[in-house]
Design a protein that fits this description.
The chain is an alpha/beta fold and 224 residues long. It is built from ten helices and ten strands. It has helices at residues 10-21, 36-45, 54-60, 73-80, 82-85, 115-122, 137-141, 159-172, 189-194, 196-206, and strands at 2-6, 25-30, 49-53, 63-66, 89-92, 97-98, 106-107, 127-131, 152-156, 180-182. Bound molecules: NADP nicotinamide-adenine-dinucleotide phosphate (NAP). NADP nicotinamide-adenine-dinucleotide phosphate (NAP) binds at residues 7-12, 30-32, 35, 67-70, 72, 75-76, 93-95, 97, 133, 136-137.
């Protein structure tokens, strides 16, 4: 599959590399055509890898990943072009973290809205699926870095788009399908983004970003 990865940071590079290794053709996008990090990645990642602007990567991909800094994701997607992502699956990995008041970060949007929803509203013709934003970049593409079963969440308005993303998560990144929990429509992004303040605190307590949560379900309570 042809995949556009918007973002040259740790997430963009890790996701793009894993997708190339899984056999996909990947174009990494950035604000500029000659981003040194993107050019170096494309050179080192092999013949299925290339780099360009956000717009180049978005036009190239049948599926597009948003791995840009949350506070600038809407700007980056505007630069990519609404038409270039129309009718495509857009996997939104971003978190709306606000570091303006230092650590720990707060959220730029929360409670009654989320960045995932803002992106879906900005790109009404795209099928946005929020996924992968609750784990660190290396764990996204290598779930066995944490032993045993643990969970990843996805949500979005389009069932077929979620099926495509579940396929990429399981076949290209190695997640067990039973460990990928579908939380419903894109408003569920409020919950996965609002997990970040807890994620940041867990990271502080554990001193290690290589962790995840496991949802353990007991028998349903009986009435009466
Ligand atoms: N790091 C993690 O482990 C992790 C885990 C889960 C979710 N996330 C989320 O994934 C996203 C990417 O994180 P990251 O750590 O890889 O990198 P990042 O530093 O948050 O984002 C890097 C990307 O954002 C773009 N960007 C920065 N300022 C911009 C602006 N003013 N306008 C347009 N684009 C701009 C950069 O563009 P250029 O390429 O042009 O420089 C670059 O592609 C974030 O939303 C983060 O919250 C990160």
């Amino acid at each position: 599959m042809k995949i556009g990865v918007l973002g040259t940071g740790m997430v963009g590079e890790t996701v793009a590399t894993a997708l190339v290794r899984a056999g996909h053709e990947v174009r990494m996008g950035s604000r500029t055509k000659d981003h040194p990090g993107a050019a170096a990645w494309a050179k080192g990642a092999g013949t299925r890898a290339s780099a360009g602007t956000f717009a180049d990567a978005a036009s190239f991909g049948e599926v597009v990943f948003n791995c840009t800094k949350g506070e600038h994701s809407l700007e980056a997607l505007r630069a990519a072009g609404e038409a270039a992502i129309a009718d495509k699956v857009l996997v939104d990995v971003s978190n709306p973290l606000d570091f303006s008041k230092g650590m720990p970060p707060s959220l730029l949007v929360s409670n009654t809205d989320s960045l995932g929803e803002q992106i879906q509203r900005a790109l009404p013709r795209s099928r946005v699926v929020k996924a992968l934003n609750t784990v660190n970049a290396y764990l996204m593409v290598s779930p066995s870095n944490v032993p045993g079963d643990h969970n990843l969440f996805l949500c979005g308005n389009d069932p077929e788009a979620k099926r495509v993303v579940r396929g990429l998560l399981t076949e290209s990144f190695g997640w067990k399908t039973g460990n990928v929990l579908d939380l419903g429509d894109i408003t569920a992004a409020r919950g996965t983004e609002q997990y970040l303040p807890l994620w940041v605190r867990l990271y502080g307590s554990l001193g290690n970003p290589n962790f995840n949560i496991r949802v353990v379900v007991g028998p349903a309570p009986t009435q009466g």
